[in-house]
């Protein structure tokens, strides 16, 4: 019999039948994206019986649609890998039969996986209240960690492994994190030095993801070239895709709407101070698009990115996010692209 780390690896039908004999299931999915119409392309899950991993399943599924190149870059799953595989919707419906009131369901951001597996109206969603989320546990037990992503939580708990973004591997590491977190008696507060080191590691994580973003968009022929004219100013140019930082208090949304969702644009970013409100006089970065001031960034982001704009006035790349929530509300936002954040510093010193 096939196995994963010495644990029997079975088909989804056998896994569903065996779930009735177990007290806990850890699950992860890989999908075609995060948007409302995304579909599952891989289910990975682990059954726990008498406190120990007992059985696992790992199944690639045919989503019945094109697979974005960015997902291939992230997961290593190619469209050809999914050809001839079981239908995603059918297998998700079957897998849902394993979710009952008698089994504890664990995942990292488990609400996302339940929604992807069951759809918006599937009755399994009623069991979300009987699930445990390692994301929530980590936020409680690692309260000042800079990030609570699965990769960050693995690292902070002493697991020196790179998250593979494959369903079964991520389910396995979610189980290991859950097992360790549930043994923690009181919150673990990181020292300032530990927070700083973790921010450096998060910067490395973001660089890997940024490289994947670039590769994926090029493979999808979606390009990353700004669609507007670069400001004709004698200023430094910073071209990076490491970290998108939200511009707050966005004005002139009609200007962003003219470019549309998922547009990349040239902007000018200038160090200044907030002019009104309770934070008036505090340092910030103001963003200008086509000569029009759009907004600034929050004090928290300023503390994480102060000193990163060359000379305090430079030309950068920005992105109009293609988020379903923005579309539903009919709004357009902007994210300026800065280097990975450093540890929080006093912007007055830069």
From TrEMBL:
Keywords: Exonuclease, Hydrolase, Nuclease, Nucleotidyltransferase, Transferase. Its EC number is 2.7.7.7. It comes from the Bacteria. CDD domains: DEDDh. One of its GO terms (biological process) is DNA replication proofreading. Residues 23-187 form the Exonuclease domain. GO terms for cellular component: cytosol. One of its GO terms (molecular function) is 3'-5' exonuclease activity. This is DNA polymerase III polC-type.
């Amino acid at each position: 019999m096939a196995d994963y780390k010495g644990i029997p690896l079975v088909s989804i039908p056998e896994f569903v039948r065996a779930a009735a004999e177990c007290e806990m299931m850890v699950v992860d999915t890989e999908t075609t994206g995060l948007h409302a119409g995304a579909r599952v392309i891989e289910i990975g899950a682990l059954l726990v019986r008498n406190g120990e991993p007992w059985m696992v399943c790992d199944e690639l599924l045919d989503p019945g649609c094109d697979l974005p190149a960015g997902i291939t870059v992230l997961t290593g799953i190619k469209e050809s890998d999914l050809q001839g595989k079981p239908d995603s919707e059918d297998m998700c419906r079957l897998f849902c039969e394993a979710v009952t009131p008698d089994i504890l369901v664990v995942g990292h951001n488990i609400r996302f996986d339940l929604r992807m597996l069951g759809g918006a109206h599937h009755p399994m969603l009623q069991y979300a209240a009987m699930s445990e989320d390692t994301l929530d546990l980590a936020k409680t037990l690692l309260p000042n960690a800079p990030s609570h992503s699965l990769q960050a939580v693995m690292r902070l708990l002493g697991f020196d492994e790179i998250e593979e973004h494959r369903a079964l591997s991520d389910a396995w590491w979610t189980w290991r994190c859950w097992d360790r977190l549930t043994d923690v008696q009181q919150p673990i507060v990181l020292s300032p030095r530990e927070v700083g080191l973790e921010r450096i590691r998060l910067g490395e994580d973001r660089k890997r993801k940024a490289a994947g973003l670039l590769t994926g968009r090029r493979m999808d022929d979606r390009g990353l070239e700004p669609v507007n004219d670069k400001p004709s100013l004698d200023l430094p140019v910073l071209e990076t895709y490491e970290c998108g930082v939200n511009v707050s208090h966005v004005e002139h949304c009609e200007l962003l709407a003219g470019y549309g969702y998922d547009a990349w644009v040239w902007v000018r970013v200038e160090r200044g101070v907030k002019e009104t409100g309770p934070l008036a006089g505090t340092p910030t970065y103001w963003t200008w698009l086509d000569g029009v001031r759009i907004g600034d960034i929050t004090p928290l982001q300023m503390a994480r990115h102060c000193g990163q704009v060359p000379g305090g006035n430079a030309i950068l790349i920005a992105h109009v996010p293609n988020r379903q929530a923005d579309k539903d509300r009919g709004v357009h936002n902007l994210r300026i692209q800065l280097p990975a954040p450093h540890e929080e510093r006093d912007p007055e010193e830069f």
